[in-house]
Specification:
about 200 residues; Jelly Rolls; six-stranded antiparallel sheet; about 10% helix; binds 6-O-phosphono-alpha-D-mannopyranose; binds zinc ion
């Protein structure tokens, strides 16, 4: 092999993803975000408190990862599952993040359910792409991304991104997200954000 190795050398490996349950088997890292972790993110704060008073602290989403070294050259991969549901009339969603290394892209491949990936740039551009089983969404460098489940079953997708990308939540905490997904009058609406919430 030519060249100097500048990243951790690993033996090849493989993992199974249960395509029916859309779950990564033998995942080594399991992240769970519940309603209480989402305070400050939804437009209607009171609706989130009501939901917790009525339902306890329901899971909003989970991420299963089998981590590799967080180094340039490796690819991090995971499956994520966003539960169906709404806070007021706003669909359940992930916090959303930029990559710390903003030049790092990400690929999502839909495995189950349906929804959208909402995206924004620091200079005010916005975009959204539909997610469904068999559909791939490319999140280019520089775009913050948030996943929204607009269906009635868990929305599950596979993700892969440069392992040294890192997650930056702080900028969204400060800037907010410029659009939100609601169920209004029986229809999905993806509309500019007004008022509160990240
Ligand atoms: C996807 C990937 C993960 C991310 C997860 C949850 O699976 O982008 O890197 O952690 O969604 O999203 P967030 O980190 O924004 O809460
Ligand atoms: Zn990402």
């Amino acid at each position: 092999m030519k060249g100097r190795k500048t990243t951790t050398f690993l033996q090849p490996f493989s993992v199974s993803i249960d395509l029916e349950k859309a779950e990564m088997l033998q995942a080594k890292r399991h992240l769970v975000r519940k309603a209480s972790d989402m305070r400050g993110y939804y437009a209607d704060e009171a609706a989130l408190e009501r939901l917790m008073a009525e339902q306890g602290d329901p899971v909003h989403y989970e991420v299963f990862e089998t981590p590799v070294p967080e180094e340039h050259g490796h690819l991090m991969y995971c499956t994520s599952s966003v539960q169906p549901g709404r806070v007021g009339d706003e669909y359940f969603m992930t916090k959303g993040h930029y990559h710390e290394h903003t030049e790092a892209a990400e690929i999502y491949l839909g495995l189950r359910g349906e929804g959208y990936v909402l995206m924004k740039t620091a200079d005010g551009q916005t975009a959204f792409e539909r997610m469904a089983r068999g559909r791939m969404v490319y999140v280019p460098p520089y775009w913050a991304h948030r996943s929204v489940n607009t269906g009635s079953e868990p929305m599950v997708f596979f993700c892969v991104y440069p392992a040294d990308a890192g997650h930056n939540y702080g900028d969204i905490a400060q800037e907010g997200f410029p659009m939100r997904a609601f169920l209004r009058g029986g229809n999905l609406e993806i509309v500019p954000s007004t008022g509160k919430g990240r």
